[in-house]
């Protein structure tokens, strides 16, 4: 099933690029589009200054590969769902490659639900064993991003072909509604559409994602606002806040700052 949810990160939204710092995103092949949001790279060539790299909650799970690692051991890890922003101060040369997964699809790829990775880095070899190490070893031996993506997509398609873990149907349907409404739907209405109680829905989200439905709704709504800003559809924050159900400006500003770390007017 195709997904129109496209979360965005600050370097892309604010077009933060320099000769020393670069962030790029790449579209997955059609067979993986329902599982993979994008592939991404982040490169920083340290000279005489630090670079701030802001990471926002996007409702996704990432595999991150350190392309500077001298060994495939502990060179790749899974980063779980975030609920608050994080700012890294880059001071050393960095080159990262990432695979960003939709949360409802993570289980079928990673063999464990997204809730397993909340608040911790889990090394890829602890999930995929030697196969994970072999893939990372191939990645570390190649410079061209297009070739890395070919290796990764071959591996992901192979895993899906062997997969015998079905995505929880309630979670899948819930996320489709959340994406469709761009997060602007209450948990009560969501539960009614699914013909389940809010309590049962919360249990499923906690077990599979490690987040409540309310938290996921907030993240998707926040990201949908950012996507609207990025596309240029609207640049008036008051209009955007109203469109996404924020009738209290102070509530909108508080939520925005919680997820981004700055005020809307500072963008």
In helices, the fraction of residues equals 40-55%
The chain-level mean pLDDT equals: 92
Q: The CATH topology of the largest domain is what?
A: Jelly Rolls
Net shape:
globular
Characterize the main sheet.
6 strands, antiparallel
CATH architecture group name of the largest domain: Sandwich
In the CATH scheme, the class of the largest domain would be Mainly Beta
Beta-strand content bin: 15-25%
The figure for the number of domains is 2
Radius of gyration: 19 Å
Indicate the low-confidence ranges by residue numbers: none
Give the spatial strand order of the biggest sheet: 1-2-7-4-5-8
Structural class: alpha+beta
End-to-end C-alpha gap: 34 Å
Write down how many β-strands occur, each being a DSSP E stretch of 2 or more residues. 8
What's the order of the H and E elements?
HEEEEEEEHEHHHHHHHHH
**Count of alpha and pi helical runs:** 11
Organism: Shimazuella alba
Domain HTH araC/xylS-type: 190-267
Pfam family, one: DUF6597
Protein name: Helix-turn-helix domain-containing protein
Outline the structure in words:
- Keywords: DNA-binding, Transcription, Transcription regulation.
- GO terms for molecular function: DNA-binding transcription factor activity; sequence-specific DNA binding.
- This is Helix-turn-helix domain-containing protein.
- The protein is an alpha+beta fold.
- It has 2 domains: 10-162, Jelly Rolls (Sandwich), CATH 2.60.120; 169-266, Homeodomain-like (Arc Repressor Mutant, subunit A, Orthogonal Bundle), CATH 1.10.10.
- The protein is 42% helix and 17% strand.
- It is built from 11 helices and 8 strands.
- Strands 1-2-7-4-5-8 form a 6-stranded antiparallel beta sheet. Strands 3-6 form a two-stranded antiparallel ribbon.
- The protein is globular.
- The model has no long low-confidence stretch (mean pLDDT 92).
């Amino acid at each position: 099933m195709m997904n129109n949810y496209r979360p965005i990160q600050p370097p892309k939204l604010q077009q933060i690029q320099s000769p020393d710092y670069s962030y790029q995103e790449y579209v997955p092949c059609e067979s993986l589009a329902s599982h993979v949001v994008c592939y991404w790279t982040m490169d920083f060539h340290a000279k005489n200054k630090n670079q701030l790299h802001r990471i926002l909650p996007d409702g996704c799970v990432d595999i991150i590969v350190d392309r500077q690692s001298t060994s495939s051991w502990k060179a790749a890890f899974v980063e779980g769902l975030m609920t608050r922003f994080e700012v890294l101060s880059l001071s050393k040369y960095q080159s990262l490659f990432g695979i960003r997964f939709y949360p409802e699809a993570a289980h079928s790829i990673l063999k464990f639900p997204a809730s397993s990775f909340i608040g911790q880095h889990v090394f890829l070899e602890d999930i995929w064993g030697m196969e994970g190490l072999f893939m990372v070893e191939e990645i570390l031996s190649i410079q061209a991003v297009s070739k890395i993506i070919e290796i990764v997509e071959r591996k992901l398609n192979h895993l899906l072909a062997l997969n015998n873990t079905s995505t929880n149907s309630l979670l899948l349907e819930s996320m489709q509604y959340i994406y469709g409404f761009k997060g602007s739907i209450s948990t009560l209405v969501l539960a009614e559409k699914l013909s389940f109680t809010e309590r049962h829905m919360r249990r499923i989200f906690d077990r599979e994602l490690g987040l409540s439905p309310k938290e996921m709704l907030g993240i998707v709504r926040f990201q949908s606002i950012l996507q609207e800003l990025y596309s240029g559809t609207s640049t008036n924050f008051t209009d955007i806040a109203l469109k996404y159900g924020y009738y209290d400006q102070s509530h909108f500003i508080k939520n925005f700052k919680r997820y981004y770390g700055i005020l809307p007017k500072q963008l």
